Amino acid sequence: MNIKQSLLRSCLSVVVLCCLTVFFSSCTKEEPVNPVVPEPSDLPLTDAYITDSIHYAQSNMMAYNFVYPSTDPYGHHIMQSATITISDAVQRGVPAPGMVLYNHFTVYRANQCPSKGDLDIQKMLAPSKLITVSPDYYGFGVTEHHHQAYCIQSVNAQSSVDALLAARQLLTQMGFLWDDFLFNAGYSQGGQTTIGVVKLVTERYPNINLAYSFAGAGSYDIPETYRQFVNTTISGMPSTVVSVLLAYNEYMNLGVSYSEMFVEPVLSHIDDWFYSKRFTREEIDNKVGTLAIAEYLHPTLLDTTSALARRFMEAFDSENLCHGWTPRTNEHIMLFHSALDITVPPANSVNLYNFLIAQGVTDVTLDIDDYGAGTSTPAHEASALNFAMGARQKICDLLGIEPWPLF
């Protein structure tokens, strides 16, 4: 192994341990210090409010956890939770250079969401002085007693946009200012949510202007993803396949029994492995113990022409981001993917890129290459490093600042 490969492998070890977290230099979790109870003047007069404020001294960053009004997967009004993070270098009354709406990747354990302190990405962003808003998504934080709406982009995008709107109100009431640069970013499930935000903003929020959207390795075309898993017979992260089926079955009201969807050992461990929120993605994948989808999916679902598979495919297609909407032609979007990805097939990014181009979006780029080739790092994780570096460079170019360190 040459020096370049060795360095890349060293950096990517963080990704493997932190489930796509390529942005933080240490695998040791920083403990928060000096919790700050907000003063009455910090509390908003709206339905959104700050629940606690925590200072991360090692990262020179303050985190404000808050709850805000949003909707559940059925459209009912509920409260959800999110986190605002701000560098200590940002002073009240002095404008920050902008904001990042950060959409997190796949998590399963309850304490992996932003409001429970999983803030590695936010710590990486803090030196940029950008204010970061990070939704927990439905099924985490104050809604962790519910099943997560995994890869249902419309639900997660709504959580994200509602968090942004509430955060802006709270920040204004606390005396913070920011310049009009709003970056929208996420990787893997977060990449799907990022494009879901673009779609939602286009259709319902004309006053929200996205300076740039960075989406990495997202499942934008779930029907095509499912077809490719069946054709290749494997998936790099079996937990995600099971979770998509569970979420769509529940929140699309398909009413399919688990025994029609799964075989042992997954069949007997849905509640324990997937719904308990006690395990990480890596731990669940190890419990499933195989990449071969035939070893955990019911044979009927392995036949894409079966009536049951078609029901799921129709539900998947209702959330397909590669057709059925009209993006603003002046959107600015960067897509990243590894051509070797067996967790989220690269056809997702290719199909989305082709769709956006066909719709007349003038500034959309696709960075796709053999990321992960020649290393032991899975391609899905390997392309996350390229995503981080590409997004950072574009942000620095737009803001006219020097790149801050990722590690």
Structure description:
- This protein is an alpha/beta fold and 407 residues long.
- The chain has 2 domains: 29-220 and 322-399, 3-Layer(aba) Sandwich (Rossmann fold), CATH 3.40.50; 222-317.
- 35% of the residues lie in helices and 17% in strands.
- It has 11 helices and 10 strands.
- Strands 1-2-3-4-6-5-7-8-9-10 form a 10-stranded mixed sheet.
- Strand 3 (61-71) and strand 4 (77-87) form a beta hairpin.
- Helix 3 crosses helix 4 (189-204).
- The two termini are 21 Å apart.
Class from secondary-structure proportions: alpha/beta
Strand content of the residues, in percent?
15-25%
Order of neighbouring strands in the sheet with most strands? 1-2-3-4-6-5-7-8-9-10
CATH topology of the largest domain: Rossmann fold
Key words describing this protein structure:
407 residues, alpha/beta, Rossmann fold, 2 domains, 10 strands
Question: Would you summarize the structure shown here?
Answer:
With 407 residues, the protein is an alpha/beta fold.
